[in-house]
Amino acid sequence: MSISSKIKQHLPHDELSVKLWKEDKLKPDIREQLLEISDAFVEYLGISIDVIDVTFTGSYANYNYTPYSDIDLHIIVDPKSINRDVDLVEEFLKAKRQFWNDRHDIRVLNIEVELYAQDVDEEHASSGVYSVKNDEWINKPDKFRTNFDKRNVSRKVKYFKKQINMEIEEAKMNRNTAGLERIIKKIRDMRSAGLEKSGEMADENIIYKILRSEGDIQKLYDMRDNVFDVDLSL
């Protein structure tokens, strides 16, 4: 698929996804399925934990969903209620979440469900957050009034694709991840700056999403892991 076609898929919609929503309420069967998934995740954690809320966020809780979007399901917990060592709890929850998402491919109407354990005190940047547990909006999204600069997005996507391929080839030859780390940080910082300045329809966020959907960002992480593994092998 051409870059221009990818860009068109990221244009904002006038309505929430009719697959999941009926007007501005989550469809009852979808809500029940998401609660069942969250219960399974909590049981998988294997520890006693009080769930404060279960929230649905991300593009499918907003007007900027694409065929590549996930259902982001957040289990809201208080790490301090589990152990006084909050850093330890956060590392445990992060590791369990990564293992769960790597091992399972759970889908609702063929949309992948990504699970997160989120600290109740953590701020979330998304403009759309829905409480699945309470069946109500926490942050109801507004329709986007502005579009991104398609020409700028196309130019920057091509630039980053070229840079990513160059750094991957360099890492293959020199077995050094410094260049990979630099461009990973550059892309991450670019996206963060765009979100902070202009929100989810920022050029920088759309660039990131296209690179992610095309597999370019994953190629960076895969090469970095490959170099690490080879260095530790005999």
Shape: globular
Oligomeric state of shown chains: single chain
Distance linking N and C termini: 41 Å
Total of DSSP H or I helical runs spanning 4+ residues: 7
Order of helices and strands: HEEHEEHEEEEHHHH
The total beta strand count reads 8
Structure description:
It is a single chain. The protein is an alpha+beta fold and 234 residues long. Helix content is 50%, strand content 15%. It is built from seven helices and eight strands. It has helices at 3-9, 28-45, 86-103, 150-174, 178-198, 203-213, 216-231; strands spanning 21-22, 25-26, 53-57, 71-77, 107-108, 111-119, 129-131, 136-139. It has a six-stranded mixed β-sheet. The longest helix has 25 residues, at 150-174. The mean pLDDT is 90.
Give the helices and strands, then pairings.
Blueprint: H1 3-9, E1 21-22, E2 25-26, H2 28-45, E3 53-57, E4 71-77, H3 86-103, E5 107-108, E6 111-119, E7 129-131, E8 136-139, H4 150-174, H5 178-198, H6 203-213, H7 216-231
Parallel strand pairs: 4-6
Antiparallel strand pairs: 1-2, 3-4, 3-7, 5-6, 7-8
Helix pairs in contact: 4-5, 4-6, 4-7, 5-6
Using brief descriptors, characterize the structure shown:
234 residues, alpha+beta, 6-stranded mixed β-sheet, two-stranded antiparallel ribbon, 7 helices
Describe, in short, the structure shown:
This protein is α+β, with helices and mostly antiparallel strands.
